[in-house]
Specification:
The protein is mostly helical. The chain is 72% helix and 0% strand.
Protein backbone atom coordinates (compact mmCIF):
# COMPACT_ATOMS: atom_id res chain seq x y z
CA UNK A 1 0.00 0.00 0.00
CA UNK A 2 2.86 2.39 0.78
CA UNK A 3 4.42 1.84 -2.65
CA UNK A 4 1.09 2.58 -4.34
CA UNK A 5 0.63 5.76 -2.29
CA UNK A 6 4.22 6.83 -2.93
CA UNK A 7 3.96 6.24 -6.68
CA UNK A 8 0.60 7.89 -7.26
CA UNK A 9 1.12 10.54 -4.60
CA UNK A 10 4.41 11.39 -6.27
CA UNK A 11 2.77 11.66 -9.67
CA UNK A 12 0.05 13.93 -8.28
CA UNK A 13 2.59 16.19 -6.56
CA UNK A 14 4.75 16.37 -9.69
CA UNK A 15 1.74 17.32 -11.80
CA UNK A 16 0.63 19.92 -9.23
CA UNK A 17 4.12 21.39 -9.13
CA UNK A 18 4.39 21.68 -12.92
CA UNK A 19 0.84 22.98 -13.35
CA UNK A 20 1.40 25.45 -10.51
CA UNK A 21 4.52 26.79 -12.20
CA UNK A 22 2.88 27.03 -15.63
CA UNK A 23 -0.72 27.97 -14.77
CA UNK A 24 -0.51 29.50 -11.32
CA UNK A 25 -3.22 32.08 -11.94
CA UNK A 26 -5.73 29.42 -13.01
CA UNK A 27 -5.23 27.47 -9.78
CA UNK A 28 -5.38 30.66 -7.73
CA UNK A 29 -8.81 31.36 -9.23
CA UNK A 30 -9.87 27.92 -7.93
CA UNK A 31 -8.78 28.94 -4.39
CA UNK A 32 -5.60 26.87 -4.45
CA UNK A 33 -2.30 28.43 -3.41
CA UNK A 34 0.36 28.45 -6.12
CA UNK A 35 3.39 30.19 -4.69
CA UNK A 36 6.64 29.25 -6.37
CA UNK A 37 7.98 27.93 -3.07
CA UNK A 38 5.05 25.56 -2.68
CA UNK A 39 5.39 24.46 -6.32
CA UNK A 40 9.07 23.63 -5.77
CA UNK A 41 8.21 21.73 -2.58
CA UNK A 42 5.59 19.77 -4.53
CA UNK A 43 8.17 18.92 -7.21
CA UNK A 44 10.81 17.77 -4.72
CA UNK A 45 8.35 15.80 -2.58
CA UNK A 46 6.76 14.32 -5.71
CA UNK A 47 10.12 13.22 -7.11
CA UNK A 48 11.13 11.56 -3.82
CA UNK A 49 7.79 9.82 -3.44
CA UNK A 50 7.69 8.70 -7.05
CA UNK A 51 11.20 7.29 -6.83
CA UNK A 52 10.34 5.44 -3.61
CA UNK A 53 7.14 4.11 -5.16
CA UNK A 54 8.74 2.88 -8.37
CA UNK A 55 12.38 2.06 -7.61
CA UNK A 56 12.61 1.98 -3.84
CA UNK A 57 11.97 -0.87 -1.45
CA UNK A 58 8.74 -1.30 0.45
CA UNK A 59 10.47 0.06 3.56
CA UNK A 60 11.68 3.16 1.72
CA UNK A 61 8.22 3.80 0.30
CA UNK A 62 6.72 3.45 3.78
CA UNK A 63 9.33 5.81 5.27
CA UNK A 64 8.81 8.54 2.66
CA UNK A 65 5.03 8.13 2.86
CA UNK A 66 5.20 8.55 6.64
CA UNK A 67 7.57 11.54 6.46
CA UNK A 68 5.54 13.45 3.90
CA UNK A 69 2.28 12.35 5.49
CA UNK A 70 3.30 13.89 8.81
CA UNK A 71 4.64 17.03 7.12
CA UNK A 72 1.43 17.53 5.13
CA UNK A 73 -0.67 16.94 8.26
CA UNK A 74 1.34 19.59 10.13
CA UNK A 75 1.01 22.05 7.23
CA UNK A 76 -2.73 21.40 7.07
CA UNK A 77 -3.21 21.94 10.80
CA UNK A 78 -1.03 25.06 10.99
CA UNK A 79 -2.82 26.47 7.94
CA UNK A 80 -6.12 26.66 9.82
CA UNK A 81 -4.71 29.10 12.39
CA UNK A 82 -4.61 32.76 11.45
CA UNK A 83 -0.91 33.03 12.31
CA UNK A 84 -0.15 30.15 9.99
CA UNK A 85 -2.08 31.19 6.89
CA UNK A 86 1.14 32.09 5.12
CA UNK A 87 3.25 29.51 7.01
CA UNK A 88 5.11 32.11 9.04
CA UNK A 89 5.92 34.28 6.03
CA UNK A 90 7.19 31.48 3.79
CA UNK A 91 4.26 31.75 1.38
CA UNK A 92 3.46 35.31 0.27
CA UNK A 93 -0.22 34.70 -0.55
CA UNK A 94 -1.02 32.20 2.18
CA UNK A 95 -3.07 29.02 2.23
CA UNK A 96 -6.80 28.80 1.64
CA UNK A 97 -9.18 26.51 3.49
CA UNK A 98 -9.21 24.25 0.43
CA UNK A 99 -5.38 24.06 0.56
CA UNK A 100 -5.56 23.06 4.23
CA UNK A 101 -8.16 20.36 3.59
CA UNK A 102 -6.11 18.94 0.69
CA UNK A 103 -2.95 18.90 2.85
CA UNK A 104 -4.80 17.12 5.67
CA UNK A 105 -6.29 14.49 3.36
CA UNK A 106 -2.98 13.91 1.59
CA UNK A 107 -1.13 13.69 4.90
CA UNK A 108 -3.63 11.29 6.45
CA UNK A 109 -3.42 9.03 3.39
CA UNK A 110 0.38 8.99 3.65
CA UNK A 111 0.39 8.09 7.33
CA UNK A 112 -2.22 5.36 6.81
CA UNK A 113 -0.32 3.92 3.84
CA UNK A 114 2.88 3.82 5.87
CA UNK A 115 1.13 2.14 8.81
CA UNK A 116 -0.02 -0.65 6.52
CA UNK A 117 3.62 -1.64 5.91
CA UNK A 118 4.75 -4.57 8.02
CA UNK A 119 8.40 -5.53 8.35
CA UNK A 120 9.31 -9.08 7.48
Amino acid sequence: MAKTYAKWGGIILLVLGVVGLLLGRVLTSLSLNTDIIEDIIHLVAGALLFYAGTRGTDAQAASWSRIFGVVFLIVGIIGFFSFGRNLFGLLPTGLSTLDNIVHLAYGAAGVLAARAYKTA
